[in-house]
Amino acid sequence: MIRAIVGANWGDEGKGKITDMFAEESDIVIRFQGGSNAGHTIINQYGKFALHQLPSGVFYEHTVNIIGNGVALNIPYLMKEIESLKEKGINPNILISERTQVLMPYHILFDQYEEERLKERQFGSTKSGIAPFYSDKYLKTGIQVCDLFYPDRLKEELRRICEVKNVLLKHLYNKPLLDPEALFDELMSYSEMIRPYVTNTFDYLQKAMSENKNILLEGQLGALKDPDFGIYPFTTSSSTLAGFATVGAGIPPYKIDTVTAVVKAYSSAVGSGPFVSEIFGEEAENLRRRGGDAGEYGATTGRPRRMGWFDVVASRYGCQVQGATEVALTVLDALGYLDTIPVCVAYEVDGTVTQSFPVNAVLEKAKPVLEYLPGWKEDIRGITDFDKLPQNCKNYVLFIEKALGIPVTIVTNGPKRHEVIRR
Ligand code: GDP
Ligand code: MG
Fold first, then answer.
1. Does 350 lie in the same domain as 232?
2. What is the pTM assigned to this prediction?
3. Ligand 1 atom, smallest distance to 298 CA
4. DSSP E strands: which ranges in 76-125?
5. With a cut of 70, which residues of the chain have pLDDT below it?
6. Are residues 247 and 210 in the same domain?
7. What is the pLDDT of residue 121?
8. First CA to last CA across the chain, in angstroms?
């Protein structure tokens, strides 16, 4: 059984918790894209963790956690994450694909320098080096993990890379130049750190599939941050779609049995870009305070997230581009304070109402068409049976299910592991 768990919104839908639930039943959990720029929050018997690069199966002794070839691997950061688990007595099983590319120290610098240069036109990057990393990967000036173990070739490659980078550093950014020798030494220290984890994960997975192992593909961010189908250029730089999981992990496309799209009961987003159902001021602050478990502040950056009402147009589109076979509707408990709950059911663009998710030039002009559903004004945490939810709460879920056209099989009503309703 192979399941992909992916976001259908702008990220931070609560994928970490859903993945954690399924990780327990999985033999293998794989991260297939992204890097340390986003985070999952997981609360379990060991405490509260913000996982950035580590797959969510790291808490289970029986689960092998793979960092797939599609990931942007920040090695020192990964070591810190592993260390923080070890401090709590957890010894994770980790494998890193030999084809995963290495996020270089200069990727982080270029990310910072470019945002500085753009000033008020900046993208709101987390400055983790993700965009420069993926540009280099596709420009074919990236370094694969396996390259770290062939020092002579690596040295040559670094010289070639620094030649180009230094032109930009000198003439565009006015910043200190890169020294290929110093970089080489740094990479040699990385190679020692990760050597025990690196392997041919492709062969490993071929074998695992032939043995019918349970495999979980774990997505980062959400559909609307996908560089092809999202709100480009306010997206991330690697595909966030379940379809890409097959590439970023090394699995045949027809092998994915279930795509679980995680959808939040309201909207939140980080970074710039159009966000049609966005709310502001006190209205936003009220929702932000109740959202998530410690409020809607980024797991990686601590930045307050932008808030909005549930957006049917964006979420249905998000589920469609993910190819969702089921939906996990999360953080429903956060809405319990509202008398009536606004839901964005369509967009109005220049006087025309549409339910089709448009390109950015149109999206930027779109106004939300709101419908108001009655609230339930009750704390629903602790309820584990769908039928025991207040009627208005059930109606809210059923309204969303109908609007998305995909069965909502999971509802979460609290950040903790057991705070979940399965239908
Ligand atoms: P991810 O990036 O999709 O994994 O999501 P994040 O972990 O960044 O953000 C989701 C936040 O919501 C975290 O703080 C979770 O602990 C929290 N959370 C997840 N599910 C629920 C829920 O059902 N109710 C509440 N109140 N918080 C939740
Ligand atoms: Mg997150």
1. yes
2. 0.95
3. 8
4. 94-97, 101-102
5. 293-294, 298-301
6. yes
7. 86
8. 20
Looking at the fold, whether 120 and 227 belong to one and the same domain comes out as no
Indicate whether 178 and 207 sit together in one domain.
no
Tell me the C-alpha distance between 97 and 206, whole Å: 13
Same domain as 62, residue 36: yes
Widest CA span in the chain: 68
The residue segments making up the domain with residue 8 are: 2-84+203-422
Question: How many domains, in total, are found in the chain?
Answer: 2
DSSP E strands, 70-211: 72-73, 94-97, 101-102, 198-199
Candidate of 41, 220, 418 to mutate for ligand 1, largest count of ligand atoms within 8 Å of Cβ: 41
Name every protein residue with a CB atom under 6 angstroms from any ligand 1 atom: 7, 11-17, 38-41, 43, 292-293, 299, 330-331, 333-334, 412-415, 419
Is residue 279 located within the same domain as residue 388?
yes
Question: Which residues have C-beta within 8 Å of that of residue 184, sequence separation ≥ 6?
Answer: 151, 154, 155, 158
Q: Which two tokens stand for residue 383?
A: 């309820």
Residue 140: the pLDDT is: 95
To test the pocket of ligand 1, the residue of 43, 51, 330, 384 to mutate (highest count of ligand atoms within 8 Å of its CB) is 330
What pLDDT, on the 0 to 100 scale, is given for residue 37? 84
Residue 292 Cα: closest atom of ligand 1: 12
Residues 380 and 409 reside in one and the same domain? yes
Residue-level pLDDT at 294: 60
